[in-house]
Amino acid sequence: MDTKPAARPARQEASKLEAPKIPKVHKLHPEVVAAQAKDILSVLLVLRFVNAISVRTFFQPDEYFQALEPAWSIAFGIDSGAWLTWEWQHQLRSSLHPVIFGLAYKGAYSLMTWLEFFAPFKSLILVALPSVLQSVFAALGDFYTWKLATEIFGVQSNAPFAALWMTILNPWQWYCSTRTFSNSLETTLTIAALYYWPWELLADSKNSKYVPLQSKSSVNSLRISLVLAAIAVLLRPTNLLIWLGILTLAVTRLTLDGTSRLPVTSIVTLLREITICGAATLGISVVSDRLYFGFWAFPPYQWLYFNITQSLAVFYGQMPWHYYISQGVPLLTTTFLPFALIGLYKSALSLSPSPSPTSLTTIQSNILRTLGFAVLTMITALSLISHKEVRFIYPLLPILHILGAPYILTFFTAPPSQEDTTTTTLRHKLFLANILSVNLLLAGYLTLAHQPAPLSVLTFLRTDFERLHLDTLSLSPPTPNPNITELFALFLTPCHSTPWRSHLVYPALRARALTCEPPLATAPGSVERQTYLDEADRFYRREDGGGYGARFLREEMWPLQDGERGGEVPRYIVGFEGVEEVLQSFFKGEGADLGVELSRVWEGWNGAFNEDARRRGKLVVWDTGVWGLPERTKET
To answer: For this UniProt entry, which residues form the secretion signal (predicted)?
Structure first.
């Protein structure tokens, strides 16, 4: 017997020695199982495509600045206007992630150019393309969550479908899985790698002569797992914590059921494949980084140096040690939290997940315990780091769904009767309806109504630029054009409050925004670092009179130079409602010589609440009047 179920006959191999197998109540024909998997994947691809085109809100800038901006520069060149943040200038990030989107950009643009599509239509496709591509990765993440649950609980169990419904109906998944975060791709890579991992390593061979990792199919499965895991680690080095936890229990068998040890031949095979697959993946990454940066670089080292040695991560915020316990896991799992916690707790004790006809086998309990140990390892280690974000533990979500699936199944379904073992009866229906309603409302609000303005304002700016400069709508490197001398938009918002070139698109659309580069040249704990203020901080710094912004506008944005105001006056100024009074006061006072007469030409609602007071209220576009824009009706 093989630890792999009948759903994967291609990965099985005839042998006199059979791997331990999870008991089955009944057996499905392999073709039925394969057709079922194909149907589920097809539905998930459609579902996540709808998910991707439904997301109309802004979450965090890394979605764009750590993926799409470098991807844009890959596709359209360094003169394309992409905003490469300090991490890319100091090689902290692997190029593997943006290369995916860069190639997609370049391929789609080349095809549309060959087909002679109209420029505004090209821009619409390019803006939507990354999310649509990410929807495929998101669907694969859901699919492998179901596949791994099937691997553990068996095709006869309904627990895999409970895990599938949990990942589909989870608000966090709907909100984040189709966003182009490296964490989103890391999550898919991790759950796929866990599916292909040879769980036969955890079997108790006391009563069996089977030796793990001796068949060709098992080794090939290990190789796929290791390559996927290596890519995940290169994208996010903290992903290594998951695999350290799994390897620790697989090799040492600490806390696992069974008395046997892992054979030396299996350990040798495991170490050999880790070395080969890790080196091959690392080699591809190094070559990719060499082509991208133009010189040899090793981003994982740079990441550790700047974030650990230089302590620059704390510049972006510090959280208490219990953040992942008190906020991170609850935000990931939402209404499924109790079931995930029960699954995590019982996996540590190897308790049976349900009153089923068959109790947990040794290999089942060992797999669940190992997954639970990986969760605890990552949360514990990341809790020791000051800078914390929910996204950092996102790869644990599929595992939590799998651990919690049997308990949500037994809570909401009645045990089958002896007369009818095929019919599933729902119970606690009102409670089930309530938690599903909460999930759907959360998903709908977060994807449609919470901070939509940062995306819609760029649509306004891009389409207005198309209206005013129809003859300059090219993605080729911009050439000097006497007809375009204007700074089209100035963003007086907190740093990275909107996407950038991935939504502005055209290189000729010149824009400027407040920056927030960290204090790279200062030493940890120094006075210079403690008193450092980035550009956005200087704009929002409170002055003696209690207000903010006037000094920055007077001294940095439009300073006096030989008795005249320097600096460019834009066609549009973009900011949240709170800065309007500051701007009006400046342009009617010290900056009156600039000739600016502000008028609102666009405003967008930005959600019912925002944790950052600087981003509260509507996002507004003011026309400065300097560039002679014709009268228009205010848009909302």
So the answer is: none
